[in-house]
Design goal:
CATH architecture of the largest domain: 3-Layer(aba) Sandwich
Protein name: Disease resistance protein RPM1
Number of strands: 30
Largest sheet: 18 strands, mixed
Radius of gyration: 31 Å
Distance between the termini: 55 Å
Pfam family, one: NB-ARC
CATH class of the largest domain: Alpha Beta
Helix content: 25-40%
GO biological process, one term: defense response to other organism
Number of domains: 6
Keywords: Coiled coil, Nucleotide-binding, Plant defense, Repeat
Oligomer: single chain
Strand content: 15-25%
Number of helices: 27
Structural class: alpha/beta
CATH topology of the largest domain: Rossmann fold
InterPro entries: Apaf_helical, Disease_R_plants, LRR_dom_sf, LRR_R13L4/SHOC2-like, NB-ARC, P-loop_NTPase, RX-like_CC, Rx_N
Length: 922
């Protein structure tokens, strides 16, 4: 439901823009558009009421049809408006006397399409009135009946019962966590303490809380206990009443203030334990805490939630503990599965003939105890033969939706989706458009969301900053998993959704025709569709019936058949396209018809063989993103400078994967005049030269730049570039690559660097580390390559207060690296590579307290582990590559020299170079 609201909202925005544009040119058109906007606002009100109703009761078929009609009408309105805007854009702006004659002729011609447009608006208004009438018949303007609340509560309770009554044999891997929780409950400070159990649905929060709550030692420790299940749309008065029923049933009070007062008085003299299970609302604690006195008697409150923001709201100084639950390890998941699936006849042991299938089934459960237990329980009732188990394995995803013996899994996971606000639902659904198992970078997500119109302006924040807030909220709700940094330690990170959540996403997307996924031999789009994602297509993947209304086309894993991609016909049919992703497609050129795509906002040609862009690209006045990474494009046409809405240009080519090679790196040449691209936020990498200093001077006019990469920088250009950089107040990422390994990067002239800088990268010689670098208090990532510094850079850099990642590659010619006491307080990842003269690495006491990963590669003179490495208690990974065999063997578990120093490190890996582009484990 909220998805339809989210769909209608951008249509309203477009209508408002159209009203402003056409205000003076055609009053009758303005009147009709305003009337249409009013009708759409009424329907939007019905939608909001329908959404509230749908959360409390199952939607009737008639309501589903009504929603489909609203969605299709919203599509229709958007199509009509976009076609009209396209027509206007294609018939304007000629200069001179001939231009005057042309404009006069066009004004006369324009009357006809405007009248046609008015006629279409009238038809849409009539259709909207019919939809509105049907909405009134469904009663969407009235409140939902009281009984539906009871249905929801019963359903919510039923979903959770399985988590409340799990036996000890299904409680593997949570025993130690339960014991830790019980200790927190009965020992520790006398102050009131809130303990939050956090994690995604099905991870075991409720089970863990219940096991601790039911323990005799816990019950005996407290004067009174209460278990309260909090529904998604809880009623405060009812919740307080439930607490009163559990704790002091003799109270019969209705007013909230009196209930809070009586509860406080009752609990004031008692040591109490209260569990609030499945809390969703962020403001929950701010209200309920008033009924829970901090009485200095060792009272405890447990809150289970899927939402990080709920735990943040519960925080009260040091009296708040957070335990985030993670999926089961493979070993524990396997034990749990076998114990339950083979409990009747085989005493928990898996027959050899079923082992491969069983392992595959466990993998699909992805470490969720609830899912493993449910699936294993179902299999325990099946015949123990390969065909029976293969049948379930092949249909496991659909079984979660339809099998009556697995009723709670899909519902539990779906609750997280249903609880999302309307503005987050389309963003979350978008994860399903990418192939399964394919991670997506945060920045790429932001680009797509913005191009699709999902992100709304918010104060003085950029759309990218708002998109980041949206993603962070999804992460905080434990719906999106963050995997780690990309190579180079930049700010961009990979993210994906749990496979089981992806199944729910695909089911919901299919239900509302949010997008269609085609591929294999079946490559037909069913009916009208807004977004098409094409995987592994064997036929001509664009032989589709209805593509005129398509707004997004994303292709993945299409290889070997460039003749199948008839892009001329694509561009002719898909004139309203906003997003086009051709990553990895084996095409060598783009047709001139690219200019037809006036509404296009995002064009991705990454990893294609395209060599040049057609000059018609200058017609794409709405283009925001141009991604040319790892293409053969070396120079942009001058027409690019006409694209005043362009926000991001990615354009470098690099095929080497280990280290850096100047000969294999290429940037983009651009024509002078880029200073007019006032919205530009990303420019990576601009190729410069000594005979074109003007383009560097123009950079100072790009005041919105956040990410800047410069290639082939020479010492002569250093001062000019420095003068531009100091004026980039929003700059967050700066990467500078010199003309050659011997070229010096002269950047001493920066007096007041942009304090917003978070990533700084140098590839080229440096005479010394500039003083201005030490002023960068927000710097998170710093890399030096080919710097050939004579003084120890770590001594200079260790005071940077927020540095998290430091990378040195052929950057230092000295023999000793010394990290002094207390240095690098925030550093998490340190990489030292190809430092040929380094013989000793000293780590001072109290330094690197947060270091998680240490990577050492190709330091031929280093014979032993860094001193004091044993004191780095947060160290999780030590990775060694291309090191002397003496050093490698000493670091092995059976080594006799340094192994004790890294005994506390869970992962110590050694690699040697094999071929040019990869390392193999030793």
């Amino acid at each position: 439901m909220a998805e339809v609201i989210a769909l209608v909202t951008p249509v309203m925005d477009v209508l408002l823009q159209l009203l402003m544009k056409e205000a003076n040119s055609f009053k009758r058109l303005r009147k009709e558009v305003k009337s249409l906007k009013d009708e759409l606002e009424c329907v939007q009100c019905f939608l909001k009421d329908a959404e509230e109703r749908s959360e409390k009761e199952d939607m009737r078929d008639g309501v589903k049809v009504w929603l489909k009609q609203v969605r299709e009408e919203a599509f229709h309105i958007e199509d009509v408006i976009d076609l009209y805007i396209l027509y206007v854009a294609q018939h304007c702006h000629s200069r001179g006397f001939v231009g005057l004659l042309r404009r006069t002729a066009r004004m006369l011609k324009a009357l006809k399409p405007r009248y046609n447009f008015i006629s279409e608006i009238k038809e849409i208004k009539a259709s909207l009135r019919e939809i509105k009438d049907r909405g009134e018949r469904y009663g969407f303007n009235s409140s939902a009946p009281e009984s539906s609340n009871r249905v929801t509560e019963l359903e919510h309770c039923g979903i959770r019962l399985g988590s409340l009554f799990i036996g000890d044999d299904e409680f593997l891997d949570l025993h130690s966590t339960r014991d830790e929780l019980m200790t927190r409950l009965v020992e520790g400070a006398s102050t009131r303490t809130v303990i939050s159990l956090l994690g995604m649905g099905g991870i075991g929060k409720t089970t863990l809380a219940r096991k601790a709550y039911d323990a005799k030692v816990v019950k005996a420790h407290f004067d009174c206990c209460a278990w309260i299940t909090v529904s998604q749309s809880y009623n405060l008065e009812k919740l307080l009443g439930t607490m009163a029923e559990h704790l002091c049933p003799e109270f019969k009070i209705d007013a909230i203030e009196e209930l809070i007062g009586r509860l406080r008085n009752f609990l004031e003299t008692k040591r109490y334990l209260i569990v609030f299970d499945d809390v969703w609302q962020v403001d929950f604690w701010g209200v309920i805490k008033h009924a829970l006195p901090s009485n200095g008697r060792g009272s405890r409150i447990i809150v289970t939630t899927r939402n990080d923001m709920v735990t943040a709201d519960c925080q009260e100084d040091s009296c708040h503990l957070v335990k985030k639950l993670s999926p089961l390890s493979h070993e524990i998941a396997w034990q749990l599965f076998c114990k339950k699936a083979f409990r009747f006849k085989l005493e928990g042991h898996c027959p050899q003939e079923l082992e491969t299938l069983s392992l595959e089934i466990v993998r699909k459960c992805q470490g969720l105890p609830l899912v493993i237990s449910s699936v294993a329980g179902l299999l325990s009732t099946k015949e123990k033969n390969v065909s029976e188990w293969q049948k379930l394995n092949d249909t496991l995803n659909s079984q979660f939706q339809t099998n009556p013996h697995l009723p709670s899994i899909s519902k539990i996971l779906s609750l997280s989706y249903k609880n999302l606000p309307s503005y987050l639902k389309p963003c979350f659904l978008y994860f399903g458009i990418f192939p399964q198992g394919r991670s997506i970078t945060k920045i790429t997500l932001y680009r797509y969301w913005i191009a699709e119109g999902f992100i709304k302006e918010k104060g003085d924040k950029t759309l990218e900053q708002v998109a980041e807030e949206y993603l962070n909220e999804l992460i905080q709700r434990n719906l999106v998993q963050i995997q780690g940094f990309l190579w180079g330690g930049g700010l961009d990170r990979l993210c994906q959704v749990h496979d089981l959540m992806r199944d729910i996403i695909l089911s919901k997307a299919d239900e509302m025709n949010f997008y269609q996924i085609v591929g294999g031999k079946m490559s037909i789009v069913r009916g009208k569709c807004r977004r098409i994602s094409i995987y592994n297509c064997e036929n001509d993947c664009m032989k589709v019936n209805e593509v005129s209304g398509v707004r997004s086309i994303l292709l993945f894993n299409i290889d070997g058949r460039p003749t199948n991609f008839h892009m001329d016909s694509w561009f002719e049919k898909c004139k309203l396209l906003k997003v086009l992703n051709l990553t990895d497609i084996p095409i060598e050129h783009l047709p001139k018809g690219l200019g037809y795509l006036f509404h296009l906002k995002s064009l991705t040609l990454r990893n294609t063989k395209v060599k040049r862009l057609p000059t018609s690209i200058g017609k794409l006045q709405n283009l925001q993103v141009l991604d040319l990474m790892n293409t053969a494009v070396r120079e942009l046409p001058i027409e690019i400078n006409k694209l005043h809405n362009l926000r991001h240009i990615y354009g470098f080519y690099y095929k080497h994967t280990i280290g850096f090679c100047f000969e294999e790196f290429q940037g983009l040449r651009m024509h002078e005049g880029i200073g007019c691209l006032g919205e530009l936020q990303t420019l990576e990498y601009l190729e410069v030269s000594n005979d074109r200093t003007g383009i560097i001077t123009e950079l100072e006019g790009l005041r919105q730049l956040r990410n800047l990469g410069i290639y082939k920088l020479t010492a002569e250009l250093g001062a000019t570039l420095c003068a531009s950089i100091v004026k980039m107040n929003h700059l967050e990422c700066l990467s500078l690559v010199s003309n050659s390994e011997a070229e010096i990067l002269d950047l001493q002239a920066i007096s007041s660097p942009p304090l917003s800088l978070r990533i700084l990268s140098f590839v080229g010689r440096l005479s010394k580390i500039s003083n201005w670098i030490l002023k960068l208090s927000n710097l998170r990532t710093l890399t030096f390559s080919f710097s050939s510094l004579s003084d120890d850079p770590l001594k200079r850099l260790q005071s940077l207060p927020n540095l998290e990642y430091l990378y040195l590659y052929k950057a230092y010619d000295g023999e000793e690296i010394h990290i002094e006491e207390g240095g690098f307080q925030k550093l998490k990842l340190l990489e030292l590579c190809d430092l040929n003269e380094v013989r000793v690495i000293k780590i001072g006491r109290g330094s690197l307290p947060l270091l998680e990963e240490l990577r050492i590669g190709a330091l031929p003179q280093l014979k032993e582990a860094p001193s004091n490495i044993q004191h780095l208690r947060n160290l999780r990974v030590v990775e060694v590559s291309e090191m002397p065999m003496e050093f490698v063997l000493a670091m092995q578990p059976d080594g006799d020299q340094c192994c004790w120093k890294v005994k506390h490190v869970p992962n110590v890996w050694s690699y040697y170079k094999f071929g040019r582009d990869r390392f193999d484990a030793l």
